[in-house]
Write a structure and sequence with these properties.
By secondary structure, the chain is α+β, with helices and mostly antiparallel strands. The protein is built from 2 helices and 4 strands. It has a 4-stranded antiparallel sheet, with no helix packed on it. The longest helix has 10 residues. It is elongated.
Length: 102
């Protein structure tokens, strides 16, 4: 039923955001449902990771229909100025706690 709804919205050129809340911290990559490919045009994963006992946010693209994409995990910062996607999340390990990671 959800697939039919998203297809109808797509026909009417309506952008819809569907979210799913995952565990705050988890081990491994979340498993995709078998219907995910037909249901979603794009899948982005927003998650927390901890380095030196400091929580950081990261964003990664899991799927982008009919286009190539950068699947790297990137640091996501949220501030008074808005949201910004920065460098690779793996670079956070190389910096001191509290250093600017944008």
């Amino acid at each position: 039923m959800l697939i039919a709804l998203t297809n109808e919205l797509r026909l009417h050129r309506v952008t819809a955001y569907i979210t799913e809340q995952l565990h705050y911290f988890r081990k491994g990559t979340p498993a995709a449902e078998s219907s995910s490919s037909a249901l979603y045009e794009n899948i982005m994963l927003l998650e927390y990771f901890a380095v030196h006992d400091i929580n950081h946010r990261q964003v990664s693209v899991m799927k982008l229909r009919e286009n190539e994409y950068d699947g790297a995990n990137r640091v996501l910062t949220i501030s008074r100025e808005g949201m910004a996607v920065g460098g690779l999340s793996s670079s956070v390990n190389l910096r001191q706690p509290g250093a600017d990671i944008g």
